[in-house]
Write a structure and sequence with these properties.
The protein is of the alpha/beta class. It has 2 domains: 140 residues, D-Maltodextrin-Binding Protein, domain 2 (3-Layer(aba) Sandwich); 99 residues, Periplasmic binding protein-like II (D-Maltodextrin-Binding Protein, domain 2), CATH 3.40.190. 43% of the residues lie in helices and 23% in strands. The protein has 10 helices and 11 strands. The strands form 2 sheets. A 6-stranded mixed beta sheet has the order 2-1-3-10-4-11. Strand 1, helix 2 and strand 2 form a beta-alpha-beta unit. Helix 2 crosses helix 9 and helix 2 packs antiparallel against helix 10. The chain is elongated and about 55 Å long. 37% of the residues are buried.
Length: 253
């Protein structure tokens, strides 16, 4: 009986150590700022369902690609395209690429201002030509600025509106400038447009404003592959997708 009791005690201790070890497993994650809001809402669910601890590092949309390319190590990195340098660095596994959602560009105006017509590419073009000032993120700094510049180039208006374009370091500043009357219209990601004093006009037409894919990669230097895969699975799960949709993102599937 005493021997049996000892075995049970040892077994319980080993089980406790195993569970405790898993609970302490930390997964590091790199996230671009445009995806911060949607991610913050799903992190608690991941930690409670898996017992893994998540350590999140946030960075600029363009900067996160450079962090990976430089060799900063994260178990999982979420990137916004294009990211050729990150892939070429060998620090992330291309085969692990998992699309989580897509960000869409939208037009905003000062609260209470008339909402212009952006229902078609031509209508949107006329709206930009009629505006006195157009604000968006510097394409050399932010992913939304890069996407905006690409959309405007497809529309063929970059040179025509260059003199009345106001660039800022991030979407918060762009939104604030517009809300205070410093710009007639502004462009950045829809999920970031919850700015006081700003009204959302709507999404830009997809004919020229292609949704930006949010993609997760597992590091080639991952500490715990099982934990990293569990994180990517959760971030691409139906529960997470439902949360993303509520934030204005388009689903991956």
């Amino acid at each position: 009986m005493k021997y049996l009791f000892s075995l049970v005690t040892i077994g319980a201790l080993l089980l406790g150590i195993s569970i405790g070890s898993r609970a302490q497993t930390e997964v590091t994650l790199l996230v671009p700022n445009p995806f911060r809001g949607p991610l913050d809402k799903v992190v608690p669910g991941f930690e409670s369902k898996t017992s893994y601890k998540l350590k999140v590092t946030y960075g600029k949309g363009m900067g996160t690609r450079q962090q990976v390319a430089r060799g900063e190590i994260f178990d999982v990195s979420i990137l916004l395209p294009p990211y050729p340098e990150a892939l070429a660095s060998g620090n992330i596994d291309p085969k692990s690429a998992t699309k989580l959602a897509s960000l869409t560009l939208a037009l905003g105006v000062k609260k209470g201002a008339p909402k212009p017509d952006i229902s078609t590419p031509e209508a949107f073009k006329q709206t930009l030509l009629a505006a006195n000032t157009i604000a968006y993120v510097d394409p050399m700094i932010g992913s939304d600025g890069f996407a905006t510049q690409a959309a405007l180039q497809k529309l063929g208006v970059v040179d025509q509106i260059k003199s009345k374009t106001k660039l800022s370091a991030n979407s918060t500043i762009v939104g604030d400038v517009t809300a205070k009357g410093g710009a007639d219209v502004c462009i950045f990601y829809l999920n970031e447009m919850e700015v006081p004093g700003l009204d959302v006009v709507g999404r830009l037409p997809k004919q020229f404003a292609t949704p930006v894919q949010v993609v997760a990669f597992i590091s080639t230097h991952v500490k715990d592959a099982k934990a990293a895969k569990a994180l990517v699975r959760y971030l691409s799960s139906p529960d997470a997708e439902s949360s993303y949709k509520k934030d204005g993102l388009e689903p991956a599937r």
